[in-house]
Request: fold
Amino acid sequence: MKGDFSRVTASNAKKKHYNQVLKQQSRVLLDADNNEQVSIIAHQRRTRTIDTIGKCGAPIHNSGFEIVSNSDGELLFSTGRFYVEGLLCETSPSETLSVAGFVQNSNTLVEVDDLNIDGIPLAVGQWVRIFSEEDALGELVQIDQVNANNNRLRLSANINAYRNHHQVQLQLYLPLEAQDFLLEGEGPEIPEPGTTMLAYLEVWQRHITALEDPILREVALGGPDTDTRTQVITQLRTLAIEDPNSVLECSSVIPEWEALTAPANGRLSTSLVPTNLPDDPCRLGESGGYLGLDNRLYRVEVHQGGTLGNDATFKWSRSNAAQAYRVAEFTAIAATTADLRLERQGRDHILALKVGDTIEISDEYTDLNVDQLEVMANITAVNDLIISVAVAAADVTPFQDRDTLPKVRRWDTVDSLADAVNPITNADFELGDGITITFSGTTFEAGDYWVFAARTLTGDIEILDQAKPHGIDRHYCKLAVIKTLANGAIEIEDCRPLFPPLTELPEGEGQCCHLTISPGPSWWNVLVGHPAGTHLQVCFEPGDYELRETLTFNNLGTLTFFGAGKGSQITVINQESVFTFEDCGDVTLRDLAIHSNATAPNQPEETHLNGAVTVYDCTSLIVDNVSLSCADSDSDRQEATCITVRNTVVDNARIPGAGITGPDVLTANLPTATLLNKVVIRDCELTVGRFQTGILVVNAQMAHLEANRIAVRPGVTAVGLQGIVVAGEIAPQVVIQNNYVNRMLQGIHLGFSNDKKDDPEIGFFQGGSINIYQNHILCSIFSAFQEEEGRHGIFVGNSKDLSILDNYIQLFRARGRNDQYPGVKVIGHWGRKMILRNNHLEGDFGNVGIQVDAIPQKPQSPLWIVEQNIASIDIDDAEIIQRDNV
Reply:
């Protein structure tokens, strides 16, 4: 901080654990005391934030700097907040905009109270995320129209599903080059096809004076500046990865990242010239100590980064480089000289610039770009506000062309007109007045600096002993791994840990944990080796948890795992499952992020389609507010899920076909008592690998799947195979409600096999009460291969009591894909009730929007109704009532 300070005592306060500065009556008021108190508070605030959030983190409700790819393949980042090593980083804007209402008879128009977010005007072509309490993840849409007359926005997608939601909001997403603190023409490198890049955030604090922000100067005082400010600089950057073919994830060790974030080890020591005592005691010796006539705050700053004794250089100042002046214009530029007119000069002959002074020419561009060096020059003439400097035209012309607040700053040299900068070596360097500095270490970064005070009364200076730089402290956090495939498709892995507010941490049983786990080596050891029947209640603190092997829990009791939402990231490397639960009691997973990055191809039936979370033969499963992901398949083959829940036992007998030996027990009316009593999966975010499945539930007494967001891993032509699957030989009660399923060949699939219908001993398998309500399903077809697969928005086979109500299904086809695609397909043996009502289908389904086909075994007086649907209907059965379909 190059301000006019008497001294800087923050590091001393931290070293001595001071926590307050107390004023005494009638004492002198010092700038250093006030600044020390500010530093103490800032240190405490940052430390508390790091201890609470961790090194990096974003709040779940307004998380900033999420990297996404829009439908045009353009990279965007979310506006909002992020914390980097305790520093609050806010974008412009940083808040969201509330949706005031939805326009009647329109699926794309919304009303807002303001067409600005934090003063930033909304415009056509911008991207926003629409979300709500019911759908916290929301959907990325583009603004197609802005109507200032009635504060309406037209969005690019059908947002009718949010009409009855609460607290509907819009969050702005911006292109990477639109971020704060990037000058025009600047921006992070965008990955080319076939390359992999790491997006990250670089954060540091910049000192702002009236030169950088003229509004800080109080004009009522007639010109003098007053206090200065510090500003948090956030710069979103990308880092090229040299080996794009390697398996790269957020948790991977990336050599380029390690090199970028490795701290420089340059150090500085200060000393005084010792007193020279003559051999003759009758003679006076030369005085030692600090010999200057002024109290000073010295500054030593690295000018060009590099290594000791090679390319690293430094500059220094007796007054903390506080003498700086705005350049009004460049009046003349010649080959080796330039004339600059200043807005003002120093107030007296000491502060005014004069012939022989060394100055630095800089501007906003050099201030915000650490790789761009300031230009050092010597003053050769001064004529009032016009100064002439010896400088090459090629060095000074860019400042004139950019016109970004250029300024000059005075530095000192040992001799007038000496070299403006000095090489950094391990030799002693004399600053004059008895002061010597010595560098040590190997690497130095541009902008690193040290300050130390010198006092005439005592003849002492502040001694530094191989001190680390006092600044600039640069902080880094990973944001995303971006892989651009050869075909142009973009895959993005979000590296940001997310955390909930304290008021939304798990309540009740979640507040009392049997085990509390923190990230670290071998963190999983406390979870293994427990005796049969043990009950565990486990809390995962925020952080990244990495596994190399699947954690398997076998024959245990009630298991409850809690975390801090996306702030607790659990990832398994090169394995299909993170957690596997077998023959346990009630299993509950809440507020966690669970990710696997591999599939298990070519596995036998009994181990096929395991998930990142796999549950076999447990009493019940509850998964609440959990983020899950599974890997892509190397081939177009179904090999993984996000959640797999299977029951292989009915009345103490194994079900045939489960791959486990045991007696055959199958009848037309299967027993109602099964081991798997309840499956509840709600409010979860599932990222499905290419051609994989989100949720798979087999043989559950009750399956309740509600308010989940299921989407395929990003990619231009990537589709998932299935969003939600409920299958098997028993399903007395199934509720699938308010789920969002995106880019699947099969949105919701309920298949209770009728393959045995011709076997009189076995009969057929039939679901019980099936209820599918208010789901939002987006299906996609991009290739001929995908057309060959089974495809549908909703499929149900064999059920006694079926209701499919108020679902929205939309189909996206690539150009040239024209085969039939049933939006809703119901087939098989039914009971007395089958109702399909108020379902809305959009897209070209090939005249089979709703397809109904009953196997001719009708119950007496069936209640089979298909009504008030917006869809084409394909029904031949006269027993089915059809009315009011559009």
